[in-house]
Specification:
Layout (H helix, E strand, L loop, with lengths): L1 H89 L10 H51 L7 H22 L2
Helix pairs in contact: 1-2, 1-3
Length: 182
Amino acid sequence: MAGMEALYAAQFVIGAASAANQAQVADMEAQEQRRQANLQVAINNRLAYNAHLSLNAQQSLEFSKFGFEKFELAKSIRSERAKVEAIAASFGGSFGQQGGSFDATIINMNRHGSTALARKDFNFKILATNFNTKHENITLQTQSKNNQAFSGLSTGSSPLGTGLQIAGSAINSAVAYETGTR
């Protein structure tokens, strides 16, 4: 009879060790999943950082180009106005001219120049908004990818579940002992 008791005790020990091993494997797998997820998040964040840097460089170039184009447009407006004034001066100036054509020409040039500058400013605002939207999209894409990296992670073993599995093994061994020794 002592041999049977040892077999049932061994059955319990093996069941308990198996439950503990399963818990350890589940914990190791969960730890590896978290490590992999953290690695993926680090890669995602680095890609986002590089994308922001690239977009910042592009934005800087575009804004510099805008400033240069606006300066050139203002210079062109001043040049045209100076040319009209020089032509008027070569005809004796605008004093005493009939019809106000000189003043109308200057006003027309100012109006067209102001319209061109306003359009340039409007385009700049659109460009700035576009860059801000691109930055926000990079951030949102990174957050989405990071959420995906963490979404399917295992939590590892459950101490309660492992304890219940060991208790179940003990009960099964006890029941088997009782029915087997009768």
